[in-house]
Design a protein that fits this description.
mainly beta, 7-stranded mixed beta sheet, 4-stranded antiparallel beta sheet, 51% strand
Length: 114
């Protein structure tokens, strides 16, 4: 069955970095556009970034441009989100999503706090 498993979240100080990973299984990973979505405490879902299956085009919400980098390793069926210069407003549960199927991971908590 389709499975998306995120990892790499945690507590980090403002200005710090984290790398999230999402291990995918149960579908042909390289065929799918993949997305990171987040949900901050008490708020709705927010699109963060997406990447096309061929790893050529990447898309970011304005608030993370220049700080976050999405990437994928199709040989390893893994999606990544490298997050830098983190801010308190980046605190959220981050989900790996395949919108085409659709399928969501269980989420990984990122907390940015001093």
């Amino acid at each position: 069955q389709v499975q998306l498993v995120e990892s790499g979240g945690g507590l980090v100080q403002p200005g710090g970095s984290l790398r999230l990973s999402c291990a995918a299984s149960g579908f042909t990973f390289s065929n799918y556009y993949m997305t990171w979505v987040r949900q901050a405490p008490g708020k709705g879902l927010e699109w963060v970034s997406s990447i096309e299956g061929d790893d050529i085009h990447e898309y970011y919400r304005d608030s993370v441009k220049g700080r976050f980098t999405i990437s994928r390793d199709n040989a390893k069926n893994t999606l990544y989100l490298q997050m830098g210069r983190l801010k308190s407003e980046d605190t959220a549960v981050y989900y790996c999503v395949n919108l085409g199927l659709p399928s969501w991971g269980q989420g990984t908590q990122v907390t940015v706090s001093s």
